[in-house]
Design brief:
By secondary structure, the protein is α/β, with parallel strands linked by helices. It contains 13 helices and 18 strands. The strands form 4 sheets. A 10-stranded mixed beta sheet has the order 9-8-7-6-10-3-11-12-4-13, sandwiched between helices. A 4-stranded antiparallel beta sheet has the order 15-16-17-18, with helices on one face. It is globular. The protein starts with 14 loop residues before the first helix and ends in a 21-residue tail after the last helix.
């Protein structure tokens, strides 16, 4: 069975699959080694090999590719993020899992594209299912301590999609997508319980949620420095609420335009320095990336830790697009932003650093998407992953061996009411398909990276070939609970 094919029956995802996933990977044993914690199942060949790297996966929230210095940003300084590129590898053809947050994270966790993964759009209480296998479960099976810190978006504490029921030993941050919109909520989630932030009640801005999450992430790394660990850091910067502590905003206050404090646009909590607020959010993210890197060096585990940095989708459009997208050129030379399958909505920064293993200052043109993360991390951990995936391991590219396998195509979809919006890239061709009578759009990215000229009429053979991929890759969505109920600010901020 091809790894991208999902049969109609759901046994492909079921409990039998979970058992076969690890049995078929290798002979297994339970170790009493306290560093690996005896409850974990460890692949024998991995345990016998050289020390496996610690893995740090940092995922920014709505950070556009163009917001990062090494991808062309000139107004905001991102020296620590840029250092990952300078000391490691930068990918020029990296794509998110989807054009909005939750499905992109679902693709990242499951190694399945949006035609196969459980969560395919925001809202409607879409969650991971019990039978879904996540990268955290794969790494946990290899003896890794697994911790997540930030925005989950794939299930709440009462659902099967809860992070600590999906392979994470611990979680601190927000499970609910709406919760992660706020930087000064009155609680955060620690595993399955609320941790109060009473100082923020009354809409006061005292304890910043991102700062609390970042501190917990550093504590996890410090606590597990003597054993292999997976630190998943889906930080909430620079998403939605336009505010940042003044120590990050101050350096930009005199550099950018001001916005009237009476500006009625939603999500604006800061001063009249809205542009500086956003620049400060990106700068604070960069500073905290630097603190993660500094801690690895302090603990003397830098050379045995591989660090990935990326973002979940393109920059935020809508009410503040003049800042997020336009003024700071968040989508770079590409069309569109978050919510689009045009390049600006799904192109993402991807930087990887592993001292002594990844050649510094290298650039890869390999086309990759979030579903490559699971097989990549599994190979790094010494787990010959036998489960379903649409991904291809990037380890050969990272270690300079040459990428033996490349994607025939990259695929995305998002359900909109009773229809599906789809996009596929194959080589330099990119096809967009929309619901209703809107015609398809075909672009040649080799000559038209901004997707400005629809050449579908001139290439019906290419349209037919890519449309056939769309038909084949789409499977019915496994909706957890089709409930229109939504949560708002009153649920998290008071």
């Amino acid at each position: 069975m091809p790894t991208h094919a999902v049969p109609a029956d759901r046994t492909y995802y079921g409990s039998v699959h979970r058992q076969l996933l690890f049995v078929s990977a290798a002979l297994v044993f339970v170790t009493a080694n306290p560093c690996l914690r005896s409850c974990r199942v460890v692949a024998a060949d991995a345990a016998a090999s050289a020390p496996r790297p610690n893995i740090v996966l940092i995922v920014a929230d709505d950070l556009g590719r163009g917001h990062v210095g090494c991808y062309g940003q000139t107004k905001i300084r991102t020296p620590n993020i840029d250092r990952i590129a300078a000391e490691g590898m930068k990918f020029d053809n990296a794509y998110a899992g989807a054009n909005v947050c939750a499905p992109s994270r679902s693709v990242l966790m499951t190694g399945l594209h949006t035609g196969h993964t459980a969560v395919r759009n925001n809202g409607l209480l879409r969650y991971l299912h019990t039978e879904d296998v996540t990268v955290a479960e794969v790494l946990e099976s290899a003896g890794y301590a697994t911790g997540g810190f930030g925005k989950w978006g794939l299930g709440e504490e009462t659902t099967p999609g809860c992070a600590v029921d999906q392979g994470f030993d611990e979680w601190f941050g927000q499970y609910n997508q709406q919760h992660a919109h706020f930087f000064y909520p009155y609680f955060l989630m620690k595993d399955k319980r609320r941790v109060g932030l009473p100082e923020n009640e009354g809409r006061r801005q005292v304890r910043n949620a991102h700062d609390e999450i970042h501190r917990a992430a550093l504590e996890f790394i410090r606590a597990h420095r003597a054993e292999p660990f997976f630190a998943y850091l889906p930080y909430i910067l620079p998403h939605v609420e336009l505010t940042v502590p003044s120590d990050s905003r101050r350096e930009y206050e005199d550099a950018f335009p001001r916005v009237a404090r009476a500006d009625p646009r939603p999500g604006y909590l800061g001063s009249d320095h809205a542009y500086a607020e956003f620049a400060g959010m990106v700068g604070r993210l960069d500073r905290h990336v630097g603190e993660v890197m500094a801690l690895l060096k302090e603990l003397k585990i830098d050379e045995n830790t591989i660090v990935f940095f990326t973002s979940d989708n393109g920059p935020q459009p809508g009410a503040w697009a003049d800042i997020f997208v336009d003024y700071f050129d968040g989508n770079g030379p590409y069309r569109g932003a978050k919510g689009d399958f045009y390049e600006g909505g799904i192109r993402t920064p991807l930087l990887v650093r592993w001292p002594g293993r990844i050649a510094p200052g290298t650039t890869s043109d390999v086309a990759t998407a979030f579903y490559d993360v699971l097989p990549t991390l599994a190979e790094l951990a010494g787990v010959p992953y036998a489960g379903p995936t649409d991904g291809i391991s990037l380890v050969p590219t990272l270690l300079g061996r040459g990428q033996r396998r490349r994607h025939e195509f990259l695929y995305w979809e998002v359900p909109v009411k009773s229809a599906v919006v789809q996009a596929v890239r194959s080589g330099d061709w990119k096809l967009h398909k929309f619901p209703g009578k809107k015609p398809v759009e075909l672009y040649d990215l080799a000559t038209d990276r901004g997707e400005t000229t629809n050449v579908a009429a001139a290439h019906p053979d290419v349209v037919a070939r890519l449309a056939a991929i769309m038909t084949r890759e789409h499977t019915p969505e496994r909706v957890y609970a089709p409930d229109e109920r939504g949560l708002g600010a009153k649920d998290f901020v008071k």
